[in-house]
Amino acid sequence: MLSQETKDIIKSTVPVLEIHGTAITTRFYELLFASHPELLNIFNQTNQKQGRQQTALANAVYAAAAHIDHLEDILPTVKQIGHKHRGLGIQPEHYPIVGETLLKAIRDVLGEAATDEIIDAWAQAYGVISDAFISVEHEMYEHATQQPGGWSGFRPFVVSKKVQESEVITSFYLTPQDGGDIATYEPGQYLTLVVDIPGQSYTHRRQYSLSDAPGKPYYRISVKREDARGNLPAGVVSNHLHETIQEGDILQVSAPSGDFVLDMNTKSPIVFLSGGVGMTPLMSMANTLMERRPAHSVTYVHAALNGRVHAFKSDLTEMAKRHPAFRHYVVYERPSNEDRSHAHFAKDGFIDLDWLQTISTQDAEFYFCGPTPFMKAIYKALKQWGVEDTHIHYEFFGPQGSLAD
């Protein structure tokens, strides 16, 4: 337990963290990789270059300081990060390394303002917070290993089928090389892959949403090929999967994880809103609902640039044909004339509140995923509409961000 004096010191640093948090976490990663380059095998270097990981860590540190009196308030965040850590293979022995490096980064950035008193208080606080992470993740590791078909660490899977879903999205069907059973999962969860690319100094770990309903003898992930755009380079792993990985190849996979999952017990209507490849976890949810609760009221809206990059068009069209309770709409930013002839084409441009109110009711459960600008627009519209927070569900691909900006 932390003393009240320690808590007060931590709380006094909140304004400083608000200003210097990203500088501290940027310095943290510089120090971490300089002293422990082997950790480059775990961390996503693209997120590092874009500053997303630094910002996410800064937000997490800030939240811990702001809630130091009631750390139970950040338990949902601990569990969310814990799912990612379990998938990536973060171990208890990594936490002392992180703690030591974080304290060094605080000293480096704050200089004389980082008194011994402040550093000692943060050392104590970090010990409590890291214990919470280790405890939560221990339970997750046990569940992943002990569940039927489960396993520890990474297991070799064969790419049994590779299917191009659109010009930019390809599905990979994965079956275990050992021929054994595979763990089930909740619709919305993801797999973590370890990819060793020839010529690369370090391995890459990436998390991809499962895009089909559970209960199959395979896992399916659907990956967007990330081409170079603006100042952003092409995605190393996504391009490797699209261009190099073929049927019969082996990928190392950890058991499913993630907390963005479908509530199968709700009686409310469900609205899925996807942008681009953000449809992958929502396809898993939609497929599961139509298999298990085909009479449940479901509205699926997909937004994309145009029909050429829109995956699973025929799947959604078939769902709408087979299930009267399932409605399907398409919104294209730059539709072609052929796109406008799509049976479920709704409008040009973007999903907006005025249109959303014509196809749904305020009491529905809303699940959405896609690029951050898309999610911010959807979140803003739902809040403007007065949708309850408990009815708003979303997931970021990569480090957690904020939609309230």
From TrEMBL:
Signal peptide range: none
Keyword Flavoprotein: yes
Residues annotated to bind heme b: 85
Site (Involved in heme-bound ligand stabilization and O-O bond activation): 29
Record-marked site positions (Influences the redox potential of the prosthetic heme and FAD groups): 84, 395
Cofactor(s) listed in the protein's UniProt record: heme b; FAD
InterPro entries per the UniProt record, alphabetical: Cbr1-like_FAD-bd_dom, FAD-bd_FR_type, FNR_nucleotide-bd, Globin, Globin-like_sf, Globin/Proto, Hmp, OxRdtase_FAD/NAD-bd
Assigned EC number: 1.14.12.17
CDD domains the UniProt entry points to: flavohem_like_fad_nad_binding (cd06184), Yhb1-globin-like (cd14777)
Domain FAD-binding FR-type: 152-263
Active site: 95, 137
Free-text remark on how the cofactor is bound: Binds 1 heme b (iron(II)-protoporphyrin IX) group per subunit.
Domain of life: Bacteria
Gene Ontology MF, one: nitric oxide dioxygenase NAD(P)H activity
A Pfam family this chain is assigned to: NAD_binding_1
Entry keyword set: Detoxification, FAD, Flavoprotein, Heme, Iron, Metal-binding, NAD, NADP, Oxidoreductase, Oxygen transport, Transport
Domain Globin: 1-138
Catalytic activities: 2 nitric oxide + NADPH + 2 O2 = 2 nitrate + NADP(+) + H(+); 2 nitric oxide + NADH + 2 O2 = 2 nitrate + NAD(+) + H(+)
Start and end residues of each stretch annotated as Reductase: 149-405
Residues annotated as binding FAD: 190, 206-209, 396-399
NCBIfam families recorded: PRK13289.1
Domain characteristics, as noted in the entry: Consists of two distinct domains; an N-terminal heme-containing oxygen-binding domain and a C-terminal reductase domain with binding sites for FAD and NAD(P)H.
Similarity comment text for this entry: In the C-terminal section; belongs to the flavoprotein pyridine nucleotide cytochrome reductase family. Belongs to the globin family. Two-domain flavohemoproteins subfamily.
Protein's job: Is involved in NO detoxification in an aerobic process, termed nitric oxide dioxygenase (NOD) reaction that utilizes O(2) and NAD(P)H to convert NO to nitrate, which protects the bacterium from various noxious nitrogen compounds. Therefore, plays a central role in the inducible response to nitrosative stress.
Record protein name field: Flavohemoprotein
Species name: Alicyclobacillus dauci
Gene name of the encoded protein: hmpA
